[in-house]
Design goal:
5-stranded mixed beta sheet; 232 residues; 5 strands; 13% strand; alpha+beta; single chain
Length: 232
């Protein structure tokens, strides 16, 4: 026990007239000092910690919502698939996406199948695919470098006129670039209407109910054609 504690204890003994002031010390001191607990005002705690905690909770909620919105599943965006068909004697049909990339290809006759067999055309851009097809058909004799009656029919089927115009520009640029190499007359054929495309899907895929096909949109139908290309 320190000297200060001894001194305090001594003063308490003399003030409270008690031999052992440690017993009921609190009651004796408050009685001697005339302290009434009910009159003691409660000290208000500052509200800043409460506001700080509330602010942190709000920030946590905002962070959680932001995390969910960025990590959760993203909305599925439909691809704007279109059909490009190239006909000389070989007949070749391709499906391209909105980036003009070939996602599937199919030979519609035996000559068309022979042209594309073992060729890595899927995954290339449409202009590269067209150049490759013309090159192969020239090497096989379907197109003659010195000939004057080379004819290619291009058919573009798209859901909107804007998409059709974009693809048409690509095909025109390709055949324009070939003018110094080979003379080709390019003809344009009308693409599939919505009803024609639905009828085509009904013919090639009997597993889908006819009434369901009739409710499909253009790009959904072209996507089914793409899957058919990949299957065959």
């Amino acid at each position: 026990m320190s000297k200060y504690e001894r001194k305090l204890k001594k003063e308490l003994r003399s003030t409270l007239n008690d031999v052992e002031p440690s017993e009921n010390l609190y009651e004796k001191i408050t009685t001697a000092a005339n302290i009434n607990e009910k009159k003691v005002q409660k000290v208000r705690r500052p509200l800043i910690p409460v506001f700080a905690i509330s602010g942190c909770l709000v920030l946590l909620v905002i962070a959680f919502i932001f995390f969910i919105s960025n990590v959760g599943p993203k909305p599925v965006t439909k691809k704007a698939y279109s059909i490009v068909q190239v006909d000389t004697n070989p007949s070749i049909q391709m499906v391209v996406d909105e980036n003009n990339q070939v996602v599937s290809i199919n030979g519609l006759n035996d000559d068309g199948k022979m042209v594309i067999v073992d060729e890595d055309i899927v995954g290339t851009n449409l202009d590269d695919a067209l150049n490759k097809i013309i090159e192969i058909e020239t090497n096989l004799g379907y197109l003659i470098v010195e000939g004057s009656d080379n004819k290619v029919v291009i058919t573009i089927s798209a859901s909107t006129t804007e998409i059709e115009a974009r693809i048409k520009k690509v095909t025109n640029d390709v055949f324009t670039s070939l003018e110094d190499t080979i003379k080709i007359t390019v003809e344009e054929a009308k693409g599939y209407t919505l009803d024609e495309l639905r009828n085509l899907i009904k013919k090639i895929d009997k597993t889908i109910p006819s009434e369901k096909v009739d409710q499909m949109e253009y790009s959904d139908l072209v996507n089914l054609l793409r899957l058919y290309h990949l299957e065959v």
